[in-house]
Amino acid sequence: MFILWLIAIVITIVIAHLIYTRYVPIKGVPCVEPNKECKHGKAILDIRDYQKAAKDKVDGAIVIPVPYLRRYYSEISSQSIYVIASNHLEKNLAIRFLKNKGFDVIGYTLTDCQCKKKIEQMV
Fold this sequence. Notes:
Elements: H1 2-23, H2 34-37, E1 43-46, H3 50-55, E2 61-63, H4 66-72, E3 80-85, H5 88-100, E4 104-110, H6 115-122
Parallel strand pairs: 1-2, 1-3, 3-4
């Protein structure tokens, strides 16, 4: 009986950790316009998949999709990083990983964000 409770607690902790890392936003990292914030010694990191990044290129961006980030994060030359992601899930995973590796993530932009479209429709 004790072993079943222990297994249930471990499974609950693992699921809670997965939900937290994927869906809880990172505090202190603002959503900014790319033209205003991504200049002067800051690396632009495009974490979208290669097909999306190729269709909508960002000048001077390092393209490392989220699944490859763990393997190729050492190729990022600057400690200050501006992230371009396609959705909140990618953004959360990448920013948490980069912060754990000691990078200073100064901001992000979501390319598939519906928020701006909703605001434009309301005005």
